[in-house]
Amino acid sequence: MFQEAVCAIFLIVGSTFIFIAGLGMLRMPDLFMRMSASTKASTLGVGFLLTALAFKFTQLDIVSRAVAVIVFVILTAPVAAHMIGRAAYIAGVPLWYRSVIDELCGQYDRCDHRLGSIDIRTQDDERAEGDA
To answer: How far apart are CA 13 and CA 17, in angstroms?
Structure first.
């Protein structure tokens, strides 16, 4: 009875996260926000669903496979999202028109795919250099 209750809770939580990932895909305005919402929520959703599987079927081979898939998804989903986002930025996919700041604008060379040094000096530092 306890095992079924725990399994049901994990299934509900995992399904909720998968639903949130789908909603994020529909509701977010640009590619980068959609990717962020879907990657985070679906990773958690798949993790909870596979945890429910491990609680339901307690054989060692099933549990070890579920754990291996959870670790694989946690390690690869963020990296894949980063690479897709980087490729989209290089290709010139536009940000949402109400985006406040593009921190890579002027810092990323789209020809040789290098990130230039980011100047993090403040206005006080620039004033101090001007006075010297």
So the answer is: 6
